[in-house]
Amino acid sequence: MTALPERIERKLGLVIDLDTCVGCHACVISCKGWNTENYGAPLSDMDAYGADPVGTFLNRVHSYEIQPEGGGCAQTVHFPKSCLHCEDAPCVTVCPTGASYKRAEDGIVLVNEDACIGCGLCAWACPYGAREMDQAEGVMKKCTLCVDRIYNENLEEVDRVPACVRTCPAGARHFGDLGDPDSAVSQLVAERGGFDLMPEQGTKPVNKYLPPRPKDRLTGGVATAPVLPTERRDATGFLAWLDRTLEKI
Amino acid sequence: MNQPWIDTSPKVSDEIRKTTCYMCACRCGINVHMKEGRVAYIEGNRDHPVNKGVLCAKGSAGIMQVNAPARLRAPLRRVGPRGSGEFKEISWDEALGLAREWLTPIRKSDPSKLAFFTGRDQSQSFTSFWAQAFGTPNYAAHGGFCSVNMAAAGIYTMGGAFWEFGQPDWDRAKLFMLFGVAEDHDSNPIKMGIGKLKARGARIIGVNPIRSGYNAVADEWLGITPGTDGLLILSLVHCLMEAGKIDLDYLARYTDAPLLVDDETGLFLRDDGGKTLVIDRATGHLRPFDEKGVRPDLNASHPGHRTVMQLMAERYLKPEYAPEAVADRCGIAAPRIRAVAAEIARVAFDEAITLDQAWTDFRGERHEKMTGRPVAFHAMRGISAHSNGFQTCRALHVLQILLGSVEVPGGFRFKPPYPKPATAHPKPHCKTTPDMPLDGPHLGFVHGPEDLALKADGSPARIDKAFTWENPMSAHGLMHMVISNAHAGDPYRIDTLFMYMANMSWNSSMNTGGVMKMLTDTDENGDYVIPRIIYSDAYSSEMVAYADLVLPDTTYLERHDCISLLDRPICEADAAADAIRWPVVEPDRDVRGFQTALIQLANLMELPGFVHEDGSPKWQDYADYIVNHERKPGVGPLAGFRGDGEQVGRGTPNPDQLKRYIDNGGFFVSHIPEGADFYKPWNMAYQDWAVGMGLYDAPQPYLFNLYVEPMRKFQRAAEGHGDRQPPDHLRDQIRKVMDPLPIWYAPFEDGHADPEEYPIHALTQRPMAMYHSWGSQNAWLRQIHGRNPMYVPREIWDSHGFADGDWARVSSIHGAITVPVALHAGLNGSTIWTWNAIGKRKGAWALDKDAPEATKGFLLNHLIHELQPPRGDGMRWSNSDPITGQAAWFDLRVKIEKMPAQHETDPDMGAMASPVGRGPRNLRWKVGK
């Protein structure tokens, strides 16, 4: 069993806007590209051109249909999901070798691949399904919050964000310190009613989601535009209105 | 606490090479990170005008494309029967020699025996130049089966179109309305724009039968019945006119609304010099539309004439356009249509924007401010790919113009080289002479029957019958008809079909199985009916198997390209911009960029324009052409770094030009001066800037065309006026569809397929991670979209008793497929859909024969014929828009029946041999140590 640090200095994480995410998978592939080439073993793809391709991804987008309460059209929510870097991370405490750990300085949950025995307990313990066993390497892979980007002095400062955040075309992904109430991400969460995923699990996820805005409100129940007088809603009425109006221009 | 040490500052790469993406048509700038000379990682280029650093899934997956096992390795000559996929590798000398041997006799006898169609080509100013030099009239790219209705309607109506030639004002729009777009060519800019709108609290209305992608994040979703968008739009026009919510000042000054239409002829009143006339509201006198000080009168009285505004009032205020009259057909409740109209009106007029920016219009009048109507629109294939698509696209532009929301802050803005009216475009050319170039550019805009591409005997000059009475305004040609017409010998037989990046034996054709038969059909002598096929592709696509000679192209990271102001640039609304591709890695195979191969073939054949008088080549390869070709003196493919390196737009060729582009990140931008960046068609500051850039030779201000007079000229011909007359069997159709003011008519399929028997509409969408991509076999992307069930709405799901895991037979009047189904509740109740082009043929793309794409994937194309059903008149009526020839993919009507589950989808088109084998089993792709 592995201990969580007693004190976390910063709570780095993601804020994902479900109102804006169009489900394009840009974050999924950018993550795949960066993390195949960088931290740890490459993210493998088994049977890559075959009948049952199974690759390792640290971030996936799921789409769900939701039937709004009180009727109305079904809505689709695109739901990107990766490790939420929980404060009470069960994947860490369950690890028998200390390979899974939470960093004291920024709260990032990482896997030390040298110590990972591929037992899979952490994936079992994670209520979010956010860890994937790499089939080729036999080690557990997970979101690193691009720990090798966010402090990387070989990158320009503007690029020191996770690959998924840098690439998101719709700007639906935000990165920052959720432990600092004044940070831009904390402000965004406060303004938009950001929420925890499955809070009942007691994991205290650091990542937050922003809810979709209400939809389909132009039903005709509200006032419509002022119209030409009823008796003149034809070409004659229109041209009379036109003449009157042109006089005023 | 014992944390391991980790390196948080690893070296990212040895070098970054900046080029242009080609995973789709969006043309984003990319940073290609190199390690040890190999591609290690691809990300967006922050400085690039298109994507400003972001990148989509396709772009980031480019590394799997440059390494794809499906890449062709060397030129191929067919050794087995066509379609078998059996080839032998040959040298480039042999390949180009063979092409010369085949093509030279054609050129010397009858150049029209070559049909040269270039698919997803982004170098059309070059490929059309080649085809002109060859002398064949038979050239186009894939616009005819993609979105020509959108492009042509935009250019005829307002001198510009969505995507490449214009964009919403993402920074100022407060309401954005999107029609028929799941994903689009402009993929990252739309996502970035939606992000901007959302961040500002602006609202989005999505009109689409399918609530996916952008429509899923829209604030309002109108789940319209396919093919009725035009009716909805004209109903919105009805509501806005009824409410008096139209921009009268804008209409009077900048559009043809005040022009006088002759009651008898339907043509504009003109002076002796041919200039259109208006009544000046101040004096009551007839005046040229552009005279200084004229205040055109929208409600003018002139004997025997009515203004366009008056004609529109007569038409669109009729009760047949009221929401209550269209609601059932559109599948949208009338109060909701009225509420949407009210919201559009509220934002356009109550939330108008004013910029303190003075400008001077083409009449010489100075305006102190710029007024914006912050309602922006965008639309693409969903409304375009119907037989009523042109009129629907026209209707949308008319709606924009009535609101005064084109080329104003917050509305829709043109991108250079647009605005450019239809009259400033070339007309089609089709005059062939043995051993001589064509008489001019193939494609263009017709302005009346006199511009049609007809032979002296009135028969079509082009193999695709573009610019004929069947579809007079076919500005992009009809690629989907080429093989069918060539096979039928209608209008004539050809010798060689030469194609590039066009998967015609699979997802790029209607009637896929039929096309495969046409490509392999033999005559009574046992010879192929289409005698020779040359094909160029970078990958082992399904079409490769049907070629006699394959010219292997490079991947996009191994080639030179230019994204040029001469055809399809990457401009922004406030800047002219173009870009290059360059070989960030050298090919490790015996392949050549297609454009280079074309130049080398032209040099071998000594085509005019490509060689000097002594027969020596002007250009060795495409890079040489990009730098040194001049379309007119000083104007070449690239606008940046000309002359001494500092000249923009116009300047002599600069031998260092490509290096300057590479040093600049692969692109060039020249900003439009402040004050010139709105009202461009009428703003003299913009007009003068455009002349300086070489976009125009002289200022060319013009009026928007609510009323498209050239369409009226075709109607008049159909009524019997003029020397050039349509055949009798087309008169009714021309009279009906060529209405100069937008109309709606039911999609043609509704008249062929009994709506009782075939009550369901069937559509396809491309997923965002594959849109317009030549890479759906990509190892990473196929894990996201490797299967494509037929999605069925709740109504049909329940009434047919479907359950998870069920299969269904889907039939049209033309064919049937048997496929897996899945429930999708956010769907128009009479519509089913699937992802397009996921299905693959066994043996193609270096995939396993049991890959899900080949076993569970399928194409809807089998249900769609390129011809309408026979009418017993002996004519072949194409399944296209009768105005532009746009392929009417989305007219399709089907029925659906529950079937027992199958192991594989039907039809199974059999396997082809793979010329490249199959891909590696597992990938652990790490380039760096």
TrEMBL record, chain A:
Residues 12-42, 74-105, 107-136 form the 4Fe-4S ferredoxin-type domain. Keywords: 4Fe-4S, Iron, Iron-sulfur, Metal-binding. InterPro entries: 4Fe4S_Fe-S-bd, 4Fe4S_Fe_S_CS, ET_IronSulfur_Cluster-Binding. Residues 201-221 are annotated as: Disordered. This is 4Fe-4S dicluster domain-containing protein. The lineage of its organism: Bacteria, Pseudomonadati, Pseudomonadota, Alphaproteobacteria, Rhodobacterales.
Automatic annotation (TrEMBL), chain B:
The keyword Nucleotide-binding does not apply. This is Molybdopterin oxidoreductase family protein. It holds the Pfam family Molybdop_Fe4S4. Residues 14-70 form the 4Fe-4S Mo/W bis-MGD-type domain. It comes from Paracoccus maritimus. It comes from the Bacteria. Belongs to the prokaryotic molybdopterin-containing oxidoreductase family. Keywords: 4Fe-4S, Iron, Iron-sulfur, Metal-binding, Oxidoreductase. It is found in: Cell envelope. The keyword Iron applies. Residues 637-656, 903-929 are annotated as: Disordered. Its cofactor is [4Fe-4S] cluster. InterPro entries: Asp_de-COase-like_dom_sf (IPR009010), Mopterin_OxRdtase (IPR006656), Mopterin_OxRdtase_4Fe-4S_dom (IPR006963).
